[in-house]
Amino acid sequence: MSIFSQAKSDMSFVKIDPKKLSKKGLKKRRRGQSTIAGIIISIIMAVCIIMFLFRMLPLRLIPDLYAIIAVVVLAALWVYCFISQFSRHKLIGKIIAIFLSVVSIYGFAFSSKIADSFGSIAGGTYVKKDTIDVVVLKRDKAENIKDTLKYTYSYNESSDVELTKKAIGMINEENGTVVDTTKFDNWDSLLEALYDNTDTQALLVKDSIYQSVIKDSYSSYYNETKVVAQYTISTEITASASDIDVSKNPFVVYISGNDEQGDIKSTGRSDVNILLVANPKTREILLVSTPRDSYITIEDADGDRGYDKLTHAGLAGIEYSEKALSELYGVPIDFYMKLNFTGVVNVVDALGGITVNSDVEFTNGTDAAPIQYHFEKGPNEMDGAKTLAFCRERHNFADGDFQRGRNQMAALNGIINKVTSPGILTNYSGVLDAFSSMVYTNMPVTSLTSLIRSQLSGGEQWHIQSYAIEGEPAVRNCQVYGLKNVSVDIIDENTVGIASELMNKVITGEKVNVDEYVKAQTSTTVNSSELESEEE
After folding, report:
1. How far apart are CA 304 and CA 324, in angstroms?
2. From CA 490, how far away is CA 494, in angstroms rounded?
3. Residue 225: how many CB atoms within 10 A of its CB?
4. Could you list the pLDDT tens digit for every one of the 536 residues in the chain?
5. Which residue, 39, 166, 174, 341, is most buried by CB atoms nearer than 10 A?
């Protein structure tokens, strides 16, 4: 008699009243019950495995070969667990089936978490929210929008005109009125008129500009004003990005960051401006830092162009910062990634700390962090709080923002090294949670998973180098946002050229030692200058 016939015979005894069975019949009945239970467990196992595979495989995180092997092994184990229920090895089959069911349920939950995390940070369609503030003097009795309806509203016609007009329309529609408006062509005369409270009694200004440009450049006026109402204009944006295969072809990512608290915003000043150039074939990564106050050509949402601070480009959206840097270096940028650098604390802690190689010895000030940390020249073991202090410090350096940029690249280098190491697997879930709270990118999910799959396929460790452009502090007028006598950095065009050349070398697959290349280029420049002096 075959094992299936025996099992069928045993299961037939399950329906018989045990009181009517002999000892031999009772034994068959117990075997039949065990077989039925095993079949049910095997069916549950199959459902759990199918759920896991249907959730995990579309993510394409696992290399194809490994995915095929996993499917074959799981199928074979299921067949064994099912067949074993018709043999003497029922218990072993049940144990394996229960274990794999639990693992599959965990894998399904884990895959869902990965999908949700990628969905929250990766590009697609998102809602861009711009807030227009209604600002009056602190001494004004107005406390809300209704108190200001008879006021004359003013705005700067060189900044966010379309958004301002939409906000005016919202005020009129909401209150059934038509408010008086007037416009100015610069912040100086506008804020002076508001302070005098004659030609205008209320100011309409985008919140990101009020909380940054006005607060920093016109602090005396900022301290004398208050916000009585806010209007949010929502615009659905489809994030555009390259469809390049990042596992095979070189690509460039603009990394923008600030140290604001709260959610990541698509608009706002950028304190961190790093271009990451990667070549997956040569496993080379180059990080290029540009100071936030670099005095370069930028553009705003209304299409106005001129020399201004790089950090102001982000007030119109991260795409405008990306455009400014692409034009500066003459290099197409495939993706952007916006970081909230206060979130770096959670990321580094989730990674279990990182090793950061500092090129200077220093102790951060209390403006960078409440705790003063001492950093040695060379490798430093850092937790999240210490890393943030390392990234934020600038006042203790003779070259300020330029050294801060180098420090930020060193910290990013440490994070990349840890993220691409096997150690990340011990807390992959925690790392995903941390990244989803501090990162937004227009890189498609398929590109993110392609990078991970490439790393899991046994790719070599990435070789990471960095370069920071240089410059000198100066005072200039910001043409796009109408600010006068602002502290800026006049960047060294020679270092911009070197950065462009280094990026193109990585893109074309040429391996180069950055330090040696920069030293050689600097020597050539110095020799040329000396030769010109002798000829004169």
Report:
1. 13
2. 12
3. 23
4. 466 676 667 677 777 777 777 788 777 777 778 888 888 899 999 999 999 998 888 877 777 788 899 999 999 999 999 888 888 888 898 999 999 999 999 889 888 877 777 776 766 666 778 899 999 999 999 999 999 999 999 999 888 888 899 999 999 999 999 999 999 988 889 999 999 988 899 999 998 889 888 888 898 999 999 999 999 998 776 666 677 888 889 999 999 887 565 556 666 678 889 999 999 999 999 999 999 999 999 998 888 899 999 999 988 888 899 999 999 999 999 998 888 766 788 888 888 899 999 999 999 998 888 899 999 999 999 998 999 899 888 888 888 888 888 998 898 889 888 877 766 666 666 777 777 767 778 887 777 777 777 766 666 778 889 999 999 999 999 888 888 888 899 999 999 999 999 999 999 999 999 989 988 887 765 555 444 554 55
5. 341
Q: And the tokens for 13?
A: 């005894």
194's tokens:
């508001």
In the chain, the amino acid numbered 468 is A
Cα-Cα-Cα-Cα torsion 451, 455, 460, 466, nearest 10 degrees, comes to 40
DSSP characters over 23-80? HHHHHHHHHHHHHHHHHHHHHHHHHHHHHHHHHHGGGT-S-HHHHHHHHHHHHHHHHH
Strands 225-238 and 202-206 turn out to be unpaired
Residue 216, helix vs strand vs coil: helix
3-class SS of residue 200: coil
> SS3 of 455, please?
helix
